[in-house]
Design a protein that fits this description.
The complex is a heterodimer of chains A (324) and B (359). Chain A is of the alpha/beta class and 324 residues long. Chain A has 11 helices and 12 strands. The chains are: A alpha/beta (324), B alpha/beta (359).
Chain lengths: 324, 359
C-alpha cells in the first residue's frame, strides 16, 4: 500500500478554486482541488473536455490565476505574487509539453532555435559552444540527431515534432513536467514512442510528471497515481492499481467502461455505463473528498461513504478469494 | 457472406495528387467490395490513404487530385466517370453521406441547427418547409436530442461537442443514404461521449439499414463497430478480413505491429512496442512491400517484389510474402498471441479493466 509519509511532496494544491467570468456570470472551472504530487512519480489527471483538467495544468504553469487556495512547489507558494528570483526558478523547474506539436513550435524557426529558446531567455549557457553542446545532448536524448538542428518543424513527422517539444522542455533541466494530452494528436505507433521516452526520463532523471489525459488505457500504462476529475471537481484519487481494482465513484466506473478494448467479441457485448448526475441520489450533507483507504480518496458525504465502504469491503473480499 | 449483395465495388483504384511539379501516388491499386448493410472499418495511420480512398466515393478529392486508374461501381454507374457537381447530384450527400471528424467545422456557426438540417431535406427531397421541419425534429429526436422542437432554433455554439456530432449525424441521415462514411467520427470527442456516439450510429444502422464505412486509427473503435476490417499502409489495403480474423488471426506484420503498440496491452514498467522509422514517401515509386524497411520480419523478396494477396480464408486475405509456401515459418509477436484470452482475462472479474455491471 502507499507509504506516502516517506515520499517528498514536490507540488501541492490546497483548496484551489479557479473561476472565469462568462457573460457577467462567474463560472467555477475548478472547485476546491486538493492533491499532492510526489517527487519522481507520474500523477495523472483524467476527465473529459471541459472538466477543468487543463485549467489546473495551466494554473500550475501560472497562466491561470487562482480565485482561492494556493499552489505549493518544493515547500514554497508559487501562486499569486512571488519575487523575481523565485519566478525565474519556477519557470525553469516546471516545464510543459503540449498536445499539438505542430502548433507549439515556431514554424519559421529552426529546430536549433526552438530547442535553445529557454536557454536564451534565461542565459543558461556559458558560451556558444556550451549552448550547442546542450542542444545536441537534448536532441540526442529524445532520439534525434545533431544534424536535425538546422531543419524546420514542417520537415518532421508528428512524432518527431513531439520529441522536439520534449527536448525543448528537457533542456531546461526541469523537476516537474506538465504534459497536457501529449499523445492525443499522434498515431498509435508513435504514441508508444513518446510514452516510452517519458518513462525513460522518469527513470534516468527522477523527473516528475503531471499527465493530463482523457483516455484511461494510456493513463493506466503510464501513471503511479490517478485523479479523476468531473465538472471541475476531483471525484476520486488513488494509486493506479487501486483505482482499476476498486473504482468507487460512479463517474470513474463510467470512464472505465468506456475504455475501448481491442477485441471484437468482448467489445460488441459490452454494456455502456453512462454517468448521469441528475439520476443519482444526492441527498444528505455536502460531499467532500474523503480518504476511504490509505491513499484512496473519494468525493462523498457520510451516507455515500458508508455505501462505498460496504461496496469496497465486498470487492476486497472477492479479490482475496480470486488471489487464493 | 458471399451471397450478400454488393452495394459498391471499387476496382484497382489509383489516386494521384499533383504537388508543384511532382506527382504523389496516394492510393495504389486498391480494390474493395462493400456488402449491403455491413460495417466496414478502414484502419491505418495518418498518410496511409484511408480518407483519400473513401473521398473517391463522393467525388470530394482536393482539386489537385485525380483518380488515374480504376472504377467504382455503384447502382450501375461508374463513379469515377462523374466530374461536375451536377453529375454528383443525387449521389453525394443523398445516397452516400459523410460524417467528418470535427463537428464544429462541418456546421455553419452562424445558422441555426434547424435551418441546417431542413436545408438538406428540402434540397434532396423537394418537400415543403413545414414538412422538412417535421422531418428534422423527428430525426433530431432519433439521434438523441432531448426537447428537439425547442432546440431547433438554437445555434451550434449552444450545443456540446457530442451533441454537435449528433446533429452532423442527423444531417447526414436526413436523406436516408445507402452508405454512410464516418471519417474519424469520434476522434475529437471524449471517451465516454465516443462510446455513446458509436452506440447511436449502430442503433440507427439497425433501424435505417444503411451500409457504414468507418475510417479510424483507433483499433478499439474498430473492435466495437466493425463486421469487416481493412488495414491500410502506404496507399494500399494490405490485409482484410472479418473483425475476428484481423484481431485474433492477423497475418501481415504491419497489422501485428499496430495491435502490439496498443497501450491496453502494455505492462507497466516495461516499454510499449513501437514501430521504428517513418512511413514511405509516396512521391517515389515503392518497390516491394511498402512496410519492408520498418519490418523486422522482412524477407529479401519484400524489398524487390510487391507481394500479391494470399488467401487465408474465404473472407480473409493478406498481402505479405510470409504467406507464400516457400517463406520461413514466422510466429506473430507474443503480446498479441491468444489476444481474446488475454482481453477476456483483463475484462473479467479480477482483471485490470473489469467493470462491475450496474443493476
Amino acid at each position: 500500500m502507499s507509504n506516502s509519509s516517506n515520499k517528498e511532496v514536490l507540488l501541492s494544491l490546497k483548496g484551489v478554486d479557479i473561476s472565469f467570468a462568462k457573460d457577467g456570470k462567474k463560472f467555477r472551472a475548478v472547485k476546491n482541488a486538493n492533491f499532492d504530487i510526489y517527487r519522481g512519480e507520474t500523477f495523472s489527471l483524467v476527465g473529459e473536455s471541459g472538466s477543468g483538467k487543463t485549467t489546473i495544468g495551466r494554473a500550475i504553469m501560472r497562466i491561470n490565476p487562482l480565485s482561492a487556495g494556493e499552489i505549493i512547489f518544493k515547500g514554497k507558494r508559487i501562486s499569486g505574487k512571488i519575487s523575481k528570483e523565485e519566478d525565474m526558478d519556477v519557470i525553469r523547474s516546471i516545464q510543459m509539453i503540449f498536445q499539438d506539436p505542430a502548433a507549439s513550435l515556431n514554424e519559421r524557426a529552426t529546430i536549433e532555435y526552438c530547442v535553445s529558446e529557454g536557454l536564451y531567455n534565461f542565459h543558461l549557457y556559458k558560451d556558444e559552444e556550451d549552448r550547442i553542446a546542450k542542444v545536441d545532448a537534448a536532441l540526442e536524448s529524445v532520439g534525434l540527431l545533431p544534424e536535425h538542428k538546422s531543419r524546420y518543424p514542417h520537415e518532421f513527422s508528428g512524432g518527431q515534432r513531439q520529441r522536439v517539444g520534449i527536448a525543448r522542455a528537457m533542456i531546461m533541466e526541469p523537476e516537474l513536467i506538465v504534459a497536457d494530452e501529449p499523445i492525443s494528436a499522434l498515431d498509435v505507433s508513435i504514441r508508444a514512442q513518446v510514452l516510452n521516452l517519458m518513462n525513460k526520463f522518469k527513470e534516468e532523471k527522477g523527473l516528475t510528471y503531471l499527465f493530463i489525459a482523457h483516455d484511461l488505457s494510456v493513463v493506466r500504462f503510464i501513471s503511479d497515481r490517478i485523479a479523476v476529475i468531473h465538472l471541475g471537481r476531483i471525484v476520486e484519487i488513488a494509486e493506479t492499481e487501486d483505482l482499476f481494482k476498486y473504482p468507487l465513484h460512479p463517474y470513474t466506473i463510467s470512464l472505465l467502461s468506456a475504455v475501448p478494448m481491442p477485441d471484437p467479441i468482448i467489445e460488441k457485448q459490452k454494456d455502456l455505463v453512462v454517468y448521469d448526475e441528475s439520476k443519482r441520489d444526492l441527498s444528505g450533507p455536502k460531499p467532500i473528498l474523503q480518504e476511504i483507504r490509505p491513499g484512496h480518496f473519494v468525493f462523498a458525504n457520510d451516507r455515500e461513504m458508508a455505501e462505498y465502504e460496504v461496496k469496497l469491503q465486498q470487492m476486497e473480499k472477492e479479490r482475496a478469494e480470486l488471489d487464493k | 457472406m458471399s451471397e450478400r449483395k454488393i452495394i459498391l465495388s471499387a476496382k484497382d483504384i489509383e489516386v494521384k495528387f499533383r504537388v508543384r511539379d511532382n506527382y504523389l501516388t496516394a492510393i495504389r491499386n486498391v480494390s474493395l467490395d462493400l456488402y449491403d448493410g455491413e460495417t466496414f472499418a478502414i484502419v491505418g495511420e495518418s498518410g496511409s490513404g484511408k480518407s483519400v480512398f473513401t473521398k473517391t466515393f463522393t467525388g470530394m478529392l482536393e482539386s489537385n487530385g485525380e483518380i488515374s486508374n480504376g472504377s467504382i461501381m455503384f447502382e450501375g454507374k461508374d463513379l469515377t466517370k462523374l466530374v461536375t457537381d451536377k453529375d454528383w447530384e443525387g449521389i453525394r450527400g443523398k445516397k452516400i453521406s459523410t460524417i467528418f471528424q470535427d463537428p464544429m467545422t462541418s456546421l455553419n456557426p452562424i445558422r441555426t441547427i434547424g435551418s441546417q438540417i431542413t436545408e438538406v431535406i428540402i434540397k434532396h427531397q423537394g418537400v415543403s418547409a413545414e414538412e422538412a421541419k417535421a422531418q428534422a425534429v423527428e430525426i433530431m429526436e432519433k439521434v438523441g436530442i432531448k426537447n428537439a422542437a425547442n432546440r431547433f432554433d438554437e445555434y451550434p455554439f449552444q450545443y456540446s461537442g457530442g451533441m454537435r456530432q449528433r446533429i452532423v449525424i442527423a444531417i447526414a441521415l436526413s436523406c436516408h443514404p445507402e452508405i454512410l462514411i464516418c471519417d474519424e467520427p469520434t476522434t475529437a470527442l471524449d471517451v465516454t461521449i465516443q462510446a455513446q456516439i458509436l452506440q447511436l450510429i449502430k442503433e440507427l444502422q439497425r433501424d435505417l439499414k444503411f451500409t457504414t464505412v468507418y475510417i479510424t486509427h483507433d483499433l478499439g473503435v474498430v473492435a466495437n463497430v466493425a463486421d469487416r476490417v481493412g488495414v491500410m499502409y502506404g496507399g494500399q489495403i494490405i490485409e482484410y478480413g472479418t473483425a475476428e480474423e484481423i484481431f485474433f488471426d492477423p497475418q501481415h506484420p504491419y497489422t501485428w505491429a499496430l495491435l502490439s503498440s496498443l497501450p491496453q496491452l502494455g505492462e507497466k514498467g516495461q516499454d510499449l512496442y513501437y514501430i521504428t522509422g517513418t512511413p514511405p514517401s509516396l512521391y517515389n515509386k515503392i518497390l516491394g512491400d511498402a512496410f519492408a524497411p520498418r519490418n523486422k520480419y522482412a524477407l529479401k523478396i519484400d524489398f524487390v517484389e510487391e507481394p500479391p494477396f494470399f488467401k487465408v480464408s474465404d473472407t480473409h486475405y493478406a498481402k505479405t510474402w510470409l504467406l507464400d509456401p516457400r517463406a520461413p515459418k514466422v510466429e506473430k509477436p507474443e503480446v498479441i498471441n491468444n489476444l481474446h484470452e488475454k482481453i477476456e482475462k483483463m475484462t473479467s472479474k479480477g482483471g485490470a479493466f473489469y467493470v462491475e455491471q450496474q443493476q
